[in-house]
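Dear all,

This email documents one entry for the complex benchmark we are building for the journal club exercise. For each entry we list the sequence lines for every component of the assembly. Then comes the predicted three-dimensional structure of the complex as a token string, followed by one or two observations. Please use this as the template for your own entries, and keep the labels exactly as they appear.
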Amino acid sequence: MPISEKVVISGYAETPVSRARTDKGEPRLSAEEYYAMALNMLLKQTGLDKKDLRGQGVGVAGAVWPHAEIWSAELVQNLGLEPKYLVRADHGGANCAALILSGMLAINSGYVDHFLVIGADAPMSVSGEGPRTWRYELDYLMPFGMMGPNSMIAMVMRRQMHLYKYGAETYGKISVTQREHASLNPNAYLRTPIKMDDYLASPMISDPVRLLDICIFVNGGLALLLSSKSSGRKITEKPVALRGFGSWHNPGSDESLQDVTVSGVVEASRQAYEMAGLKPSDIDFFNPYDDYTAAVIMQLEDAGFCPKGGAEKFLKETDISYRGQLPVNTGGGQLSAGQAGMVGGFHGFVEAVRQLRGEAGDRQVKDARYGMVTSLGGLAYGGCFINNYAFVLEGGI
Amino acid sequence: MAKPLPEITSLTRPLWEGAKRGELLLQRCRRCGKHQWYPRPSCHKCGSLDLEWVKSSGMGTVYSFTVIRRVVGNAPEFSSDIPFVVAEIDLDEGVRVYSNVVGVKPEEVSVGMRVRVFFEEAGPEISLFKFRPAT
Ligand SMILES: [Zn+2]
């Protein structure tokens, strides 16, 4: 029996998010507090008792919030969890995907029956130093005034615009549509709809990257419960299957002059489609990792929804709203719902599970059966992204 | 507030000593013959530890670039330089480096532009390699 027939997602949780604007009445909480909230919500939703997770698997994510090297040990002690298998991911934006993969393999092997994927971060509550960055950024980027990922993705976006003649409106369509989705998501941070003119008028930060090309940092916590299919069916009547998945790290490792407009999602999604026995036209909605609009454009191409260089034409011809032919980031994504620091990648998975359970409220994609979720992490020096994942999820099983 | 400077380590000392002399040095693998950038403890192509430092021609082509128009919280020391260009530059030796392109208005920088290295003193031990249009 294929692994995709043996493991399901049996529960999910997403806490309210905050920018810690106490002047606006927003809470200023720690990552530990968001972990506690996310677990509490997941237990309520699944109807499980904490002792049901005794001897099972737990995967936690790294955080911008200052934490110890033994962060996973600290968290399970805080939360009173007693797992048999405990892992921590350090894949940046791809943390959730990395933990889902670990959990699937652990359940498939029979080592555990449930695997709790949980992540929280509170970048807006951090005062002082966050974690140390990579050596190449310290030595070979910051001395020249590179402004972190905003400047890294600017290289990708400039190159896309140069090679494929994409105009700003192509990126704007992603920003505007995802904001519409956020306006229908009570859990999103930025909910005021925007128009193309608002996008075009938003300030240039790291030209050609505008403010509205960039995700917005929030504090928050999210969780998913993975279970064996038989155990998952006892928890919910609406388990979501993991029909296919794929991953790839550091693509083009021996190339010094990579094409920065191509990500490892080409290979990760190829694996996922092959395992699922599906093709891009079978997918009902797509939640690509969206730290930036340029990353969404790249993954529309890399996951096979349009040819490389064809995204502008595709976006002119395709409705990517929740009503359309290929809904994209139906919860508003990290661009508008918010990026909870190092666990921002959880949002796309939780939203996909909601959609496939028919619980997405006013933004529900009609008859959604297959959703693709991709994840990226770690912008490379002179290249694209280091960590790349793709998953095909199936509802109504 | 001072701008951030690279840390000199035993691995990178030759690079920064070379920059002080006005030379841009790259690692080259004695086993497979490939150049690499940024400096690393082993050849990222074949894994050999047998690396040598060789002088770059200092000539390259702009692969992509950004114009920094706003500083973010952790880099206020660059605010007086705005707007300025950081580019990915493909050196003729076949490696990609990030650096500033100066001596030209930001709006006149373009993908494909040929550039040549020069060195700018940034501290007692550090001169940064930067680029100008090659014409
Ligand atoms: Zn070699």
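Observations: Residues 3 and 37 of chain B are 23 Å apart (CA to CA). The radius of gyration of chain B is 16 Å.
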